[in-house]
Amino acid sequence: MDPEAAKLMGKLIGAGIACIGMGGAGVGVGVIFGNYLSGALRNPAAAAAQFSNLIFGFAVTEALGIFSLVIAFLLLYAV
Amino acid sequence: MAEQPIEPIHQFRINNLFDIGTFGGDGTAGSGVHIAFTNSALFMVLTIGLIMAFLILGSQRRAIIPTRVQLMTEMSYEFVANMVRNTAGHDGMKFFPMVFSLFMFILVANLFGMFPYFFTVTSHLIVTVMMALLVFFTVVIYGFYKNGLKFLKLFVPSGIPWFIIWLVVPIEIISFLSRPLSHSLRLWGNILAGHIVLKVFGGMVVGLLAAGAWGIVAIAPFGMAIALTGLEFLVAALQAFVFAVLTCVYLHDALHPGH
To answer: E strands along chain B, which residues?
Structure first.
C-alpha cells in the first residue's frame, strides 16, 4: 500500500472512531431530559421555572458531543 | 443546477461577489490584505437589514391595540428581557442591548440559512468565535472594572476545605478560559452538522433516483430529509436561545462573582 492511501485510510478510520464520543453525549442528553421529565411529572408547578436550567444543562452536555464532531472534521479536512 | 457537485461541504464555500482591492503587500501573488465583498458579507448585511426593518416597522406606530408586526416585536423584546432578568439579574439589564443584538442576529442568520441555496453565516467558525470572544472580553473587562480584584473570587468557590482548594482553583481557571471555545464551537458545530446531514440525505435521493427501477426506494431518504428540515428549524431557534442564555450566565459571573 502506498503512503498516500495509508494516510487516507488512517484519516477516515480516525474520523469514524472520533464519532464514538457522540454516544456519551447522547447518553448525557438523555439523562438530562429524562430526569427533567420525571421531576416535572412529580411537581408540574415547578417545571416551568426550571426550563432555562434544562436548556443550559443540555447545551453544556451537547458541546462535548460537538467536540468529537470537530475532531472528526479536523481529521477529515485539516490533517 | 445539474453542474453542482453532490458534495455536502460545497454549500459552505465563500465566493467573492466583487473585489474591493488589495491593500499593502509588494505586488506578488498572495501578499497584502485582499478585501472583497463575499456572499458571507452579503448575507450578514441582509440579516441586519431584515432585523432593522422588522424592529423599526414594529415599533413605529406604538398602538395600544398592536398590529401583528408590533406584537411580534414586543414578544421578542419581552422574551429576551425576561431571560436577562431571570438569568443575569436585574442589574444585568444594562447588557440587554448586547444580548438582544446577539440573539436576533444568530436567530435570523440561522433561519436565513434554512432557505435552499442561501448561505448560512453562522456555519463559519470565524463568525461565531468573534461573537464568543466579544462576550468573553465583555465579562472579563466589566468584571474587573466593577469588582476590581474581587472578581478573582470567581475562581475560589466559598466553603470548601483548604486542602482541596489547590485542586479546584486550576480547574475553575481552565473551565473559565475554555468558555469562548465551547461557546463558539457549540453554535458552529450544530449549524454545520445540521446542514451537512441535510445535504447528505438530499444526495442520497439524487443518487437513488439515478438507479432506475429501484428509484422508488428514494422515498425513504426524502422523508428523512423533510423530517430533518423540521428538526433544523428547531435547532436554529434553540441554538440562538442557548447562545443568549449562556451570555447571560457569563454576565452574571461578571456582576456577582463568588459562588
So the answer is: 16-23, 33-38
Q: Which residues of chain B make contact with A63, given a CB cutoff of 8 A?
A: 182, 185-186
Architecture of the domain delimited by A3-78: Up-down Bundle (1.20)
- In chain B, the largest separation of any two C-alpha atoms, in whole Å, equals 73
Q: What angle do CA B184, B178, B258 make, to 5 degrees?
A: 115
Q: At what angle do helices B39-60 and B68-88 cross, to 10 degrees?
A: 100
Locus of grid cell 435552499: B116
Give the best residue of B125, B176, B182 to mutate against chain A (max A CB count within 10 A).
B182
Instruction: Kindly determine whether residue B193 and residue A66, on different chains, have CB atoms separated by under 8 Å.
Output: yes
ipTM score of the complex?
0.76
Q: How many CB atoms lie within 10 A of CB B166?
A: 8
Q: Which phi and psi angles does B109 have, rounded to 5°?
A: -65, -40
Q: What angle do CA A52, B139, B182 make, to 5 degrees?
A: 60
Helix (H, G, I), strand (E, B) or coil at B37: strand
pLDDT band at B144 (very low <50, low <70, confident <90, very high): very high
Per the DSSP assignment, residues forming a β-bridge with B33 are B23
Q: What is the pLDDT of residue B213?
A: 80
B117 secondary structure, DSSP code: T
* CB contacts, 8 Å: A73 with chain B: 192
CB A79 within 8 A of CB A4: no
Q: Tell me the three state secondary structure of residue B207.
A: helix
| Secondary structure tally for chain B: helices H, strands E | 7, 2
A52: nearest CB among B86, B186, B192 = B86
Residue carrying C-alpha cell 461578571: B254
B33 pLDDT exceeds 90?
no
DSSP state of A74: I
Q: Write down the pTM of the prediction.
A: 0.86
Q: How far apart (Å, rounded) are the C-alpha atoms in residues B245 and B258?
A: 20
